[in-house]
Specification:
This protein has 169 residues and is mostly helical. The protein is built from 8 helices and 2 strands, in the order H-H-H-E-E-H-H-H-H-H. A hairpin with a 2-residue loop joins strand 1 and strand 2.
Length: 169
């Protein structure tokens, strides 16, 4: 299963800690996990909290049980002193976040660093050809904001790099 929500990336991987620590270790420990995240972190809206919970699920740091969300065993260890190229986070990001593999493939094929707009255009060109074959538009990424977030997360996790002029490789 792949997940689509991607939160605004933090400045460093350790900045995930307060959000992750606000997720209970036992499902059902709080009545409303989103409200709990709002009360315990810098997050300001329910939508932000929902996005983070879903994204943390994609990274396999949080799981959703019938009783609610809970932090995965050992999740803090992935963040504690983790280098930005943590294999576990990289694998989960590539496999479980929608569009990551396509965006990274675009970067790998490029001879020079690309802007967010160039990555979006290439992705849309690829997905348009795919959409014509399947007659379904579900393969398109939402917009440049989501692609930019994917690129920033890729850089944060060591799967890509942002150049000084704001391009990606």
């Amino acid at each position: 299963m792949q997940f689509k929500p991607v939160p605004e990336p933090p400045s460093n991987i350790e900045a995930i800690r307060p959000i992750l620590e606000a997720v209970p270790t036992r499902a059902g420990a709080v009545d409303d996990c989103c409200q709990h995240l709002l009360a315990e972190t810098h997050l300001e809206t329910r939508s932000e909290a929902e996005t983070w919970l879903t994204f943390l699920r994609a990274l396999e740091l949080v799981t959703a049980d019938p009783a609610g969300y809970r932090r995965c065993s050992g999740a803090e260890g992935v963040i504690d002193g983790a280098s930005p190229d943590s294999d576990r986070l990289q694998r989960a990001f590539r496999a479980r976040v929608y569009g990551v593999d396509s965006v990274l493939e675009i970067l790998e094929r490029a001879e020079t660093p690309l802007s967010t707009e160039e990555v979006v255009a290439e992705f849309h060109q690829q997905s348009t050809a795919s959409d014509r074959r399947s007659n379904v538009g579900r393969n398109r990424l939402d917009d440049g904001v989501r692609v930019h977030r994917l690129l920033e997360w890729a850089a944060l996790l060591g799967l890509g790099e942002r150049t000084d002029d704001g391009r990606y490789r």
